[in-house]
Amino acid sequence: MNHVNMRLLFAKVPYTKGLPAQLVYSLVWNGQFGVQMFFVISGYLITSTSIRRWGSLSALSIKDFYILRFARIAPLLLLLLGILSALHLAQVQGYVVSSKTGGLSRALLAALTFHINVLEAKRDYLPGNWDILWSLSVEEMFYLFFPLIVRLLRTKKLLIPLLTLFVIAGPFARARAFNPNPVWREYSYLGGMDAIALGCLTALLLSNRRLSKTSISTSGIAGSLLLIFSLGFSIKAYSWGLGRNGLNMTALAIGTCLVIAAAVQSSWRSPRILSPFLVLGQRSYEIYLTHMFVVMPLFAVFVHLGKPIQTVPLLFLAVIGCAGALGWLVATVYSEPMNRWIRRKTGDDASVMGAAVPSPRS
After folding, report:
1. In the chain, what is the greatest distance between 2 CA atoms, to the nearest angstrom?
2. How large is the angle between the packed helices 336-345 and 62-89, nearest 10 degrees?
3. Burial of residue 255, with CB atoms counted within 10 A of its CB: 0-12 exposed, 13-18 middle, 19 or more buried
4. Sign of CA pseudo-dihedral 333, 321, 135, 96
5. pLDDT in tens, 317-340
6. Are 343 and 349 in contact (CB under 8 A)?
7. How far apart are CA 298 and CA 322, in angstroms?
8. Are 253 and 194 in contact (CB under 8 A)?
9. Which of 181, 215, 263, 323 could form a disulfide with 291 if both were Cys (CB 3.0 to 4.6 A apart)?
10. DSSP codes joined into one string, 17-31
């Protein structure tokens, strides 16, 4: 919705005229908040599944950890980069990497070495399908060093203080007073790694621990209130200085952690009516990397029809539905089969190490 919104504004479609500012911000300007919440979930899931696989983080296999990350991330990323390179070489409008940002070779190097965020902060934004890789740069740079640090420190007593330092550094990386570059405030490593670290800390603190019913309820209520405040009253948060100081993202991440803790400890399961959102979550990586292939053509159709403002809600719904369908298709026919194939070739399969999405047989 954020990416559709930006294209509508660039095309001077005044579709938000007359709507409350906070409603507009909550619905279509919260893309960065969505990434922050995803970082928390990522940190929690990878840490908690690592503990389950190896019994404890101190027993984590560095080799197997990298195999798992490669099998999950690399197949779709490499396919995406191949498609984007072909579109650039064919000079398709909207996919050409300008010489200002270093051209195709520089973009490929940045994508493969996880510093798209650095490239954009120094030179300029890349085309939309490339730009989304900034968050992957932050996430995978964290996990590049995660198993090494875990094996080096070996105990929670040393790991928790280090992760806490990432949490403390996050707001400084996002604060205007310490970071004058607006792109780097949003895309910096430390500005996103604090959320991943909070997810890791949540997994560590909950491992082998059972919260009381009162603690679970308190966590769920407090987390929900923080999320409602962060997402539904974000303009007020900015007016209080939380955005300027980078603390709004910290509050959002802490709220996400509290909700995760309550959900996990209560063994909560979503009602069947929310199952479409569960599917979107399971395919979130595929949807994220491919959704711009939906946004751009559907928006082009909208423009071709004369930009009828009354169809804007349908545009948003169509993008969400088609992006979800495309992500599901890519996961089903390519990325998950490749994920399991790589694991089998390297000596493990889904029955040993687990799969991100259940196979059709299960």
Report:
1. 61
2. 130
3. buried
4. positive
5. 999 999 999 999 999 999 999 999
6. yes
7. 9
8. yes
9. 323
10. TTS-HHHHHHHHS-H
Tokens representing 32? 């960065």
Burial class (CB in 10 A: 0-12, 13-18, 19+), 262: buried
Q: Which residue shows structure tokens 């911000």?
A: 25
| Contacts of 47 by beta carbon, 8 Å cutoff, 6+ apart | 57, 199, 200, 203, 204
Q: Give me the amino acid identity at 5.
A: N
Q: How far apart are CA 352 and CA 337, in angstroms?
A: 16
Is the distance from CB of 295 to CB of 131 less than 8 angstroms? Answer: no
Measure the CA–CA gap between 233 and 228, rounded to whole angstroms: 7
Contacts of 66 (CB under 8 A, 6+ apart): 147
Predicted TM-score (pTM) of this structure: 0.93
pLDDT at position 41, please?
97
SS3 content of the chain, % helix, strand, coil (to 5): 75, 0, 25
Residues 6+ positions from 214 with CB-CB distance below 8 Å:
none
Residues in the chain: 362
pLDDT digits (tens, 9 = 90+) for 18-37: 999 999 999 999 999 999 99
Burial 62-88 (b: 16+ CB within 10 A, else e): eebbebbbebbbebbbebbbeebbebb
Q: What is the phi/psi pair of residue 276, to 5°?
A: -60, -35
Q: Which two tokens stand for residue 296?
A: 């751009």
pLDDT tens digits, one per residue of 155-209: 888 999 999 999 999 999 999 999 999 999 999 999 999 999 999 999 999 998 9
Q: Which bin fits 210, alpha (ψ -120 to 50), beta or left (φ > 0)? A: beta
Which pair of structure tokens corresponds to residue 333? 């026919």
Please, are residues 257 and 271 in contact by the beta-carbon 8 Å criterion?
Answer: no
The tokens of 79 are what? 């396919």
Contact (Cβ atoms closer than 8 angstroms) between residue 133 and residue 97? no
| Residue that the structure tokens 């599944």 belong to | 49
Task: Let me know if 277 is exposed, middle or buried by CB neighbors in 10 A (0-12, 13-18, 19+).
Answer: exposed
